[in-house]
Amino acid sequence: MGLGGTGGTTYYSAYSIVGMLLLLGVAFVTVSFAANSLLAPARPTPEKLLTYECGVDPVGEGWAHTHVRYYVYAFLYVIFAVDAVYLFPWATVFAAPGFGVTTLVEMFVFIGFLAVGILYAYKKGVLTWL
Predict the structure, then answer these.
(1) DSSP per position, 49-89
(2) Domain boundary among 64, 79, 94
(3) What is the pLDDT of residues 83-108, one digit of tens each?
């Protein structure tokens, strides 16, 4: 019996299963890409090599100026989406015995940091649309 193993399963055999699944996944992706390149017809025509953008023929040089505020909105969305992911595990741990007050204080600190970030963005005028 290995380190902490029960029932014939050792500590390292669990990692070997993960390693085999990883190798199997890499092999599947490699075989899929190889089969695609071998079996897919490759008949490039001038029309197929044109840039396609939402059904509109490309006109001009292709450089369009986008205001940075849209990137800021996207960045703020990503930040709060990731923060929401942290709220779900917290909610499950909060109900566990012995974690109530500690996790409540930690979550108020976490939400406090978020509130400071939102307040900073508001004071800088990032959250105004026009």
Answers:
(1) TS--BTTB---SSS-----HHHHHHHHHHHHHHHHHHHHHH
(2) 64
(3) 788 777 777 777 777 777 777 788 88
Which percentage of the chain shows pLDDT scores above 70?
81
Task: Name residue, tokens 């190889």.
Answer: 34
Rounded to 5 degrees, φ, ψ at 20 are: -65, -40
Last residue of a domain, one of 13, 45, 64: 64
Same domain? For 88 and 106 the reply is yes
Return the DSSP state at 96.
S
Its pTM stands at 0.39
Co-location of 69 and 59 in the same domain: no
State the residue range of the domain holding 52: 1-64
Task: Please state, in angstroms and rounded to a whole number, the distance separating the CA atoms of residues 94 and 108.
Answer: 12
Query: What is the per-residue pLDDT for 1?
Result: 45
- Joined together, the tokens standing for residue 113 give 């940091």
